[in-house]
Amino acid sequence: MQIGIIFANFWIWMLYVGISLVALTAICCVWGYRYAKAHEALVRTGWRGVQVVMDKGIFALPLLHDIKAIPLNTIMVSVECKNAAIAITKDRYHIHAKANFYLKVEPLPDMISKAARLSQEPFQESTLKKLFQDKFIFSVVSILAAYELQQICNQRAELGELVQKKLEPTLREYGLKLESVDICEIQSVMSPQIAQQNIPAQPLLARIFPGALETSSSQNELAFQILEELKIS
């Protein structure tokens, strides 16, 4: 009799365990299943390596996997070349420039995987700007330095293409495609006559114009007065 009771209790406990396992599995499936939205890819890392999915879903088990969403639509990153990164034209005009960079991740597993490794932060405009702002500014400034102000104003589209060609190989290493560059604003803030006072270039421009920092303190003082009057300090 006692053996029968023990045997019955055993199967009851096994039933409870089975129900619990089924419920736990169902919860994990519902909670851990992620479906890729339109214009989005999912990158799963962890157990069983890296897996990239588009237009379908994937399971991610807690503690075993990590999921990162990578948007496949175009992201615009705007940068401004001014203050510490002011641009100087071939005819010595000091100009402020604003450029928009249109980026996207190519819908290929290898490229998506590279983009996912860029940063631990969410893949969005602010993250890309933090990572590439200095490269973008330096590329724009270096291209503008080879042209006169009038040429820059008349050939923005062509100069944007030159900046694009300069950056494309570097960005491709990170899984990014640079679709276009739009130099959308040009503003002259210092004439060549004022520039002849040898106003020192900022650290970024010093790489392009190595001798620009060799100025006296009196010339520096005059430069800052001019900048203040022009309200660009």
Can you offer a commentary on this structure?
By secondary structure, the protein is of the alpha+beta class. The chain has two domains: 2-71, no CATH class; 75-191, Band 7 domain (Tetrahydropterin Synthase, Chain A). Helix content is 44%, strand content 26%. The strands form three sheets. Strands 6, 7, 8 and 9 form a four-stranded antiparallel sheet that branches. A three-stranded antiparallel sheet has the order 3-2-5, with helices on one face. Strands 1-4 form a two-stranded antiparallel sheet. A hairpin with a 4-residue loop joins β2 and β3. α3 crosses α5. The chain is rod-shaped and about 100 Å long. Mean pLDDT is 79; it is low at 198-233.
| Tertiary shape | rod-shaped
CATH topology of the largest domain: Tetrahydropterin Synthase, Chain A
Low-confidence runs (pLDDT<50, min 5 residues)? 198-233
Which structural class is indicated by helix and strand composition? alpha+beta
Total of DSSP H or I helical runs spanning 4+ residues: 8
Please describe the biggest sheet, giving its number of strands, its sense, and whether it closes into a barrel.
4 strands, antiparallel
User: What is the CATH C level class of the largest domain, in words?
Assistant: Alpha Beta
Mean pLDDT: 79
- Tell me the span between the first and last alpha carbons: 95 Å
What is the radius of gyration? Answer: 29 Å
Helix content: 40-55%
Strand percentage, roughly? Answer: 25-35%
Domain module count: 2
**Relevant CATH superfamily of the largest domain:** Band 7 domain
| CATH architecture verdict of the largest domain | 2-Layer Sandwich
Count of distinct strands: 9
Please trace the helix and strand order, writing H or E for each element.
HEEEEEEEEHHHHEHHH
